[in-house]
Write the structure tokens for this entry.
Amino acid sequence: MLKYLVNRILFMVLTIYVLATLMFFMFRLLPGDPTMTVISSAMSPKAQEAMKRQYGLDKPLYRQYTAYLNNIVHLDFGYSFQHSRRVSQMIAGRMLNTLLLILPSMIAAYALGVIMGAFIAYKRGGRTEISSVILATAFQSAPVFWIGMLCIFIFSVHLDIFPLGHILSPGMHYGKSALAKYLSLDFFHHFALPFTVITAYNICFPMLLMRSSMLETFGEDFIELCKMKGMGEKRIIYKHAMRNSFLPIATTLPLILGWAVAGSVVIETVFSWPGLGLLMVEAVQCSDYPVVQACFLMIAVLTIVGNFVADLLYGILDPRIVYK
Amino acid sequence: MFTNDGGMVTVFLNSLKMVSGSKLGLAGLVVFIVCLGVAVFAPVLAPYQPLEKNYDAAGKLMKLHPPSVQHPLGTTLLGRDVFSQVIWGARPALIIGLSTAAGVILIGVNIGLISGYYGGWIDNLLMRITDIFMGVPFLPFIIVMLSLTGRSMVTVIFAMVIIMWRSTARVIRSQVLTLRERPFVDAARISGASGLKIIYVEIAPNILPIALVNVAFALAWAIITEASIGFLGFSDPDVMSWGTIIYRSFASQMSYKAWWWVVPPGAAIMVLVTAVYFIGRAYEEMINPRLQKI
Amino acid sequence: MTLLEIKDLSTIFKTRRGDVNALDGVSLSVDHGCNFGLVGESGCGKSTLLKSIVGVLPPNAAVTGGQVLFDGRDLTKMDEDALRKIRWKEISMITQSALNALDPVYTVGDQIAETIRIHEKADKSTVRKRISQMFGLVGIDAKRFNEYPHQFSGGMRQRAIIAMSLILEPKLVIADEPTTSLDVIVQDQIFTNIRRLQRSLGFSMFLVTHDIAVVIENCDRIGIMYGGKIMEIGPVAEVVSRSFHPYTMGLKNSFPNIVDRRCELISIPGVPPTLMGTLHGCRFAERCPFAADICRSHSPVLTRIGADHHAACHFTDRVESMREKAARAGTWGDSHSSR
Amino acid sequence: MNKKVWFISLIAVFIFAPSVVCADDLEPVPEIDFLTWVPAKFMAYYETSNYIAEEWRKLGLEVNLNQASMPNPLLTYWFKEHKFDCVLSVLSGLPYRMEPDFFTNSQFNSKNKAPGDWNVGEWAHAEFDDIGERQLEIYDPQKRLPLIHQLQNVLYEEQPETVVYYDVGSMGINMTNCALDYVEAPDGLRSIWNQVRFTPKNGASVIKVGRISDQSTWNPVAAIQSDDFEMLRMVYDRLVQIGPKGEIRMWAAESVNTIDELTVDVNVKKGLKFSDGRPLTADDVKFTFEYMKEWEAPYFLKYLKPIRQIDKLGSHALRFHLEKPFAPFVMNTLGQVFIMPKHIWQDIVAKEALSKPHDYPNMPLVGSGPFMLKYWKEAEEFLLLANKDHFMAPKSDLLFVVFGSRELVNSALKKGVIDVNIQNLPPQAVKEFEKEKSLQIVKVPSNGYTAVRYNTARPIFSHKALRQALAYAVPYKKIIEEIHEGQAGISASSITPVNTFWHNADLAPRQFDLEKARQILKDAGFRWNAKGRLCYPPKS
Amino acid sequence: MIDVIDLKKYFPVVSGIRSLFSRSRGKVVKAVDSVSFQIETGQVLGLVGESGCGKSTTGRVLLDLEQPTSGDILINGESGRALKKKNRKTYYRRIQMIFQDPYGSINPQHNVASILSRPLMYQGIRDKTIIRDKMLETLDRVGLSPPEAFLEKYPHLLSGGQRQRLCIGRAIILEPEFLVADEPISMLDVSIKSGIIILLKRLVREQNLSLLYITHDLATVGHLCDKIAIMYMGRIVEIGPTDDVLDRPGHPYTRALISSIPIPDPSITRSGAPISGAISDPVNLPSGCRFHPRCPYAENLCRQREPVSAAVKDNPEHGAACFLTDKLPGFDLTKGHRC
């Protein structure tokens, strides 16, 4: 077990290293001058050189690379071209915002999806099943940003129930602690719409998967034996069928989590949610590559750590898995 | 590659037959074929050019006109016909979707086959590479790629293929791992077949159904992803794809005033992707008898 | 005294391609304290019969006629709740594949304990004690209570299933190919074990298998099933030594015997019928060397030929000549003899 | 004759046939590489270039709209590599750009042709250079004015760029909780002159201002973005500020006296205090200018360059010695550099263990400006408290709220979630906003402008006649009406009418007239080939 | 004649890079441990043992489906290792295999013609008429007639028995000298099993080949084989002519195997297997005789030294690897009824 953990963690580090290196070299191949990010009348060739010196871009590539890796180890992603600040200062709060949006939505989507999937599998062959399948598929097939836009259109613009986006109403003060901010009613008011959209959008996958997994489990001998044992329908479904059917779904959790975190770039854009994804999109648009690198790596870390946690979770759920 | 009996064509035709056996599958197939038709005959079906500006009788630009007989889905901020744009948008959607799916399958299936069949260090290497790719955040990576390579349709496809093959490779590999242990592979080996012959003659036809399911899902994913890329403003600016239409309406800040500009392209994506999903799911249920409704 | 009596039971499966008459008027009975063995090849309807008895047919199958009388109660007429009380408490089961019969995510002990708790109110420690006792009886180390099914070997799993099936001391144990996937030595151990337990617990057993030898060794009465119908039924010694049905004769011919290995091995040509759609005549007629026109048009009924011996053949009166011919390889076609 | 020969000659005919048609040695004008913006994000800019290209095509030109993403590679092609035949140059109006040098001499002087500098079209004109250099030495606006007008005349005549339009922005105030006696300024509600005048009403305690970009940095040494300067000037004082009409107004300086072209005396107001209570003195001013120069604050580098030496004349008096005469010195140098507290910054690098002052987050911020930064929640909001002791004491605290998109901020204004929107409203929404009774919409004609800038280093646009002709082939009105909903104006000069003092009103904007364009081309010897393609004048 | 000499197959417990760090480094499972036997042309050797004893691995190693650790096979005097080295394809011309699972060993995507023609094509035969004639002849030979009707069929249309016949056809189409049949009937129905036995027996005689018949079922071995080898944990513990081994088993394990087989004859009562327990841990083999933990007769010597094969009752044909062969009590299975 310990060896497995060490192996996994080493591989995670390797993955992050590879991605970091990839990012570094990809951006060094970028056509264009990184100092060319603002048109300012103060701009002069001299000023640009000064900026390059300040960003350390005048050094040879390998020196830049080693410095870059060294900095990453210290969680320092350099200096934003656009924002004239340390990138690390910018992303910490953003990451929290992204997690606050994505994690609860994903957990809700999974929990609901699994329960609904089990339910429609139980009701198989009926109208409930077919209509939920159609509805869920259609919902998943629509681009999430479009659904977000429609929801804003209906609930914010027309019905005026929810705010148009963002994380808090302007001018709300909640004292110093971040907790107070995230526990405030206002936060939930802003959180509700994007949360619902992400949840509804992500429900489909676990639901359909759970349904087919349940159908497979229903065919297993032990389920039949449960019936022969005189076990009640509910007990069979909740205690035996669902737990077993959930296993293959647990393996997809990291995948979906990865998609969701990656998909945050779109959803945060629609809802102006000040998270990593939005920051990254803005940074890419400004060729602010230290910020892009940092956001990308942070999103990757979330994905990779998510994978890892899900793997461990799977081991807890399925006694047959022995880590070696 | 899959000539001879039980070849690719047969499997494909069989799969079509199987898909149409399910109601949802049939519906998906019909919608998909209609979309294909729309894409092919877009010049005939679309009343206007996608970027054509329309002026009213008084010579005024028809800005944001709501749906009318002349413009069934209204006009955009610069007087362009939304209906025509949506029709033309079927082309990039299908071209990008199909080529991405093809690329994904080509890479994914081959890596899966080789990795799964040969095992050992080849498998180890390929799967570690796949694992690394699994850690790559999908959309962000594509966005970064596109910001580096420029935003033509080819680079969009390339960017998607380069990252989407990973899950196909995994699925195919696990399939090959079980197929490899099947006695018919041993039987082929003792008939004197070489490794490549076993992979492509014996194993490949058997993973074709799974590969076809993956084609469907990759196709669906590619279309949605292209739309997302378009929405973030990173897709080919010269191509009026559905995602780009939505993005332009979003960027014009008029999307909440002119629903007819936003709803149709999104609905088109939804309908097409749903159809593709239905096809894939119907086929998946057919090839996995345990999922069949009894 | 009769414990289980099945009268004229019919079950139909609905499939995409049509109805399958999996069971067609099956009648048999199992007496108290006796073992009944049902022999048949795959697809003959053995498993469907078991599922019909305990009422756990899949949704696309239904009993279309007949009765299952257990201790005088008709199980086919009972509602789900009443049936649930009878299941396992009175009729339990030893399944064919022990690996798949246990839920992989719970420990073996937990699953057995759950079985008890479904039917009885019992506190943890007594449950635990009972299970340990039962483990001792079937030959499992009581320490393995908290192990998962995948940690058991094949033979041990089968023992665990037996322990589970006997834990509530049922009146009838249905054993569905209990040893098919096991090696002969383990099979022998398992049956020895079952016989020993039967002596101390006194349950009846309904054994279903394709292995005629196992039935001969372990059962009092035997039923030969083919194509969803009982072909011949009676006391083991009677049916084996004085077969009245050509299928029974063919089965005996094709069964290898380590003692009589110099006997000719003769196989039955052809394949079993699919049971799809409306069927006429004897199910075995296709493969029967003695089939006449009547066999293809009229289905023979199970007729009494001995004290407790029934067979379903039109030509029970000509049995002597059939037996003689059946022992010759040529009767069954040229290429089907071992010598 | 065998088949092969037939075939080859057939191919030959096809290849050479087109050249046979232009047998009179006409060389077609090559395709124009028109560098422009991506349509999705910069729809109006892209469409402007598209409208222009459509008309140019009618003249027999081939135009390729090269869409490049902003900022890269667009800015690189535009400023660094000059990789274009013409570019849609969109320059925003900022207060310091009221200084006439920037839009004239800086942009077109042949000295500034180097990559990364402002003469991106590499235009060179000896007479223009000469006037440009001379006007830099004249500190008296009245004496400088004729030269600036001359520069505009040359540009109008030579057309190194064709000015297409200037924006007339619209900004909104929700009057429910906020009152403003609006002062017209080229930066509208963003102007400091307006921001100190926002007055709360109906019991509101703070005025909420909507923004779509977050502050990047509060460090004046590191800041490079105009949005950042807008906020920094609220919390820091400058020696002078640019007034709403583009005039110089004393701010922290009591007076600025130009002794001669190379010497400028400054007297600092007495009684100014930093927010930590320490007084602002000539030491701080001297320190700031020297510090910025020493650490190469990228934004100020260009403006600090002319300074040779700064002498402290008294506790509140200084003398600047310049390397060479630099007329924009007062407006662009003294008018931009923020006075930083010496006691904070002098040892900040050592104290915070930084490699350079650019890395200093500058929190808590110590400034002397009319506002004080209370807090900053990144990407969310920041609160500026009114500095009641300041000589320009604001009427209200301001809460700046960062929104993710223009759409959000606009609807927030309408709903009254915010009181002021300092973004321009989208042109197509202006009419709708004007109907709202609670809103006060102010019109903000910009001193920035949009133009087609020609790369005169390329053979096509080295032809003056072509540039002049194309100026008649820009559908000015259509662009303003259809793309900008009328929210723009036509200017003949790069110094737009809003810069009343410097604008040369004698120049008449050119009208859209394709016939006239054709005539100019014809007169200059341009010809059209059989396919209607424009060709260079035949070489004699 | 087939001569297998000292065949060994050791599986490392851990493999790959991990083996460098693992605690179980260097440990092996001796799946096949010094196995030697001969099969005369036209004869059948039955290799019998419980699951996990290494009998299937022996077959797979012979076919080079697993790399042998050491050992060789002589096919009519020619070294298999040399043959393989020269050209693997020609090796497979001389040795072929029939697999256990008739469903899994046929590629479901190929039709009969393609299944049968592939071996020929891989061997370089391109002439279509030759291939076709050969296929028809083979189909006829394995009892799939009329052969023409089968050529275009896909496997899913064939019954289990037909599939296994097809597999046999595929194996004999190259006219090998040596055929390995790995449990060819264990997945088939009773009435069909004997048909395959009969077919194999006929083919051995007609084609003049040697057959290694691998099975766990001693009963069928009696009907098919000329010689029997009993395998236990990678070793052949007893080998000899069928009658000698079955009637006068010289190894306690053979005795246990034989006596645990149920006999389909109600007149015979069997005493049952005298041994208990299951196979030991293959990684940590017991010291001395591998069978001693289960052997009811084990002595100290058995725990210390490993027995080598010795002639039973002075019959040089019949060997058993047991110290106690001569001391074992009498064994009689043939009492009672005969046909």
Q: What stands out?
A: The mean pLDDT of chain A is 82.
